[in-house]
TrEMBL record:
One GO-annotated biological process of the protein: methylation
Keyword Metal-binding: no
Transmembrane segments: 506-526, 538-559
Keywords, in A-Z order: Membrane, Methyltransferase, Multifunctional enzyme, Transferase, Transmembrane, Transmembrane helix
Cross-referenced Pfam families: Methyltransf_11
Methyltransferase type domain mapped to chain residues: 75-176
Family as reported in the entry's similarity comment: Belongs to the methyltransferase superfamily.
Region (Disordered): 472-499
Alphabetical list of InterPro entries matching this protein: Lys/N-term_MeTrsfase_sf, Methyltransf_11, SAM-dependent_MTases_sf
Coiled-coil boundaries: none
Protein name: Methyltransferase type 11 domain-containing protein
Organismal lineage: Eukaryota, Viridiplantae, Streptophyta, Embryophyta, Tracheophyta
GO MF annotations in UniProt: S-adenosylmethionine-dependent methyltransferase activity
Amino acid sequence: MGKKKGNKAAASTDDFLQTLEDFTSKENWDKFFTLRGNDDSFEWYAEWPQLHDSLLPLLQDSSSSSSDSLQILVPGCGNSRLTEHLYDAGFRDITNVDFSKVVISDMLRRNIRTRPELRWRVMDITKMQLADESFDTVLDKGALDALMEPEVGTKLGNQYLSEAKRVLKPGGKFICLTLAESHVLALLFSRFRFGWKMNVHSIAQKRSKLKTYMVVAEKENSVLLHEITSAFELVSLGRNDSQGSGMREAVESENKIRRDCNNGSDLLYSHEDLKLGIKGDLAELTEGRRIKFTLGGQGSNFSYRAVLLDAQKQTEPFVYYCGVFLVPKTRAHEWLFCSEEGQWQVVESSQAARLIMVFLDSSHSGATMEDIQNDLSPMVTQLAPRNDDEARIPYMMASDGIKKRDTVHEVTSPMTGKVVVEDVVYESAPSNLEDLSTSSDLAFRRLVFKRTEGLIQSEALLVEDGEILEQSQKEKTKNVSQSKRKGNKKQNQEPSRPLMRVSHDYLASSYHTGIISGFTLVSSYLKKAESCGTMVKTVVIGLGAGLLPMFLHGCLPFFSIEAVELDPVMLSVGKDYFGFTQNDRLKVHIADGIKFIRDITNSEASSEESSNIGSNGDSTTHNTQGGICPDILIIDVDSADSSGGLTCPASDFIEETFLLSVKQALPQHGLFIVNLVTRSQSVKDMVVSRMKKVFDHLFGLQLEEEDDVNVVLFGLCSESVISENDIPESAVILEGLLKCQRLETKQSIIDATKKLKCWK
């Protein structure tokens, strides 16, 4: 891919390149460029002989300016020779920027004599000190790709694209050379919608299996939404390579969004789109206007999902001309906030002519309300209607929905940090438990990590423990009798509170319900296993409070469950506060989940054999490596660092190498389940793309229609799988297998099967 010299220095940089995991780190790049030296260029993507035929016509047609006066910006220039080739082709006005002082110094020394007009500046491309509308072309060769590391999410990519759009003149072009990963294309296409013409080119590349694509976005003085065009036949892509297939799917998907929008369908707009006037003049109030959009990007520390609502009757006397209503993550799923009808009720009760409803999520958990308000304030001011009084914009907030909260236990783990067990009573009971809440408030026990305070790790219903309570009453009676004999006549003692225990036959977490509903996809195998008396081995990576393994143990008696947990503190918390117990069908391994799975696939052939039910119901055996192959593997772990947009699971669990290990570990009838929590569409697209690449079939279950943060993914290894039309029949089989004491729990699982969708 690059030009490599036959010396030790080149070899050492190649070795370092293999470990350059964080492409957004200035220190890593400084080290990389120091090792290579100023005479050893490195071309990540297509080189000049492959580029010039496609690139030069675009530049020559970029404006009415001649080539020597065309103003070109090359962000993240590195030590590529692209700029030098452009200079030699007649383009003199080129500004090169990179945040590595090492490479800028090297490139300046390399070109100061032979190409004196080239400009080199040390600069962060997400915060460029360059004037608005000052360039005819922004030429990106891999800069966006480097910023879009999965662990980092879309924040840096968003900031960079905002800057690129800002510095381009009307009629200017953003030319992006990319390897076209799905999460990169998702961001790129969505950020250049209104007022941009977009075209895609394919560039052949020698000595590499990877193809370079060139995406060109031309800035218009309009708000039209064009479909993406291509300089080649899209239908020809993907016949022989997954990279081309990914590009074709991304373009077709984006064009469908654009067609639907042009035909009147709504979409999730960006703040930039609204400032262009896509939904009318926001300085004026429009009765009943409702716009879903995103806030954040350049100058903001966070990103937000929001809804702008102009009161349905503008004749009412309003207390506020414009207000902001913050919705905490714990209440975002409620009808009042996630439905259109409920949102209008909030507008009416707020007495605001315009209400901007902002939804908080786990990425905001470490911020104070003051931080949030300070971050939102400049953006909200731009969205406020024209008001001669210049009244302040008030911030309102829904309560967290908790009526009562008691901290039961706190412990600090060296691995997880501060862990809190708390008992809470909600202001309103869950809809499927309303019949139980008539006599007294329902209490729930929750497990919370302070590092992701907005995310409830585990939640369980508390019920009265009849057996323990009866024993307690006997002890109390005995003590009272003894007191009377001693002459103790103390009266009016406070009534004792009933002793409570965790209910293991109720699922408080909707994603647990979603996970189990996915068993529908292999319900025929499960039925055969039960009929033959064969145990179904299920591995759960991530114990939490142990609620999911305990539920599976109780409701599916033919399951043998192994939970893998890295932090031993979690096992202690589960035992002491959530009633978790082990037996011959439920065991816990204190181990690294990644290593646990890879040991199955990488160790020498195990002497153990596991039973496998064939399609005809006969019992056969197959050898496994590193132990018995799991029939079902569930990934239910959070990420220690969610700043990159990935809250669950940790990024290691969605790396392609790990997914391949999973597929190798599972038998043909196996089922792989991942609980995915991310606010970033590009991260979600990236995970889905990887799973599609590895597994023969992929199903997805979106938990909430109005909130696309949480999705459960199901990967299957078998080439033959049920279709969506077969799911109702398979759900009936699963319903018969579930031995739930609570009928409402079983019904919730079966209802969730209706949301299962085939994605591959």
